[in-house]
Design a protein that fits this description.
This protein is mostly helical. The chain has 4 helices and no strands. Helix content is 70%, strand content 0%.
């Protein structure tokens, strides 16, 4: 869905020039607790309103489906293993990944 053609909700909800007290309170909370650059109530309203559209984009649906398939494949892969075996394999994979990253970083430093 594009914002210009198909949107959900009422038209006044898409007016990001105005906001409610809840948007202002949420912006104040985010600003107080995030340590990031300050956000405005208008930005909070835009994120809340557009989140629904974002979740229904074909790209997002495809990404969610891919994540689901990945979880199912992992579940099938570890189906006949004990919990200790699964933990050991996952730890080994994390260590191998960290070693590969360290090797790549060392290679970058060596080539400078």
């Amino acid at each position: 869905m594009t914002a210009a053609t198909q949107t959900r909700g009422r038209a006044k909800d898409r007016d990001f020039g105005s906001f409610t007290d809840m948007h202002q309170e949420l912006a104040a909370y985010v600003n107080k607790n995030s340590g990031l650059s300050p956000v405005t109530a208008n930005q909070v309203k835009a994120v809340l309103a557009l989140n629904t559209d974002f979740k229904s984009t074909p790209e997002r649906k495809a990404a969610l489906e891919a994540q689901k398939e990945k979880r199912e494949a992992a579940k099938a892969r570890f189906a006949n293993m004990s919990e200790d075996q699964v933990k050991a394999i996952k730890k080994l994979e994390r260590l191998e990944s960290a070693a590969a990253k360290a090797k790549a970083e060392a290679q970058k430093l060596f080539n400078k």
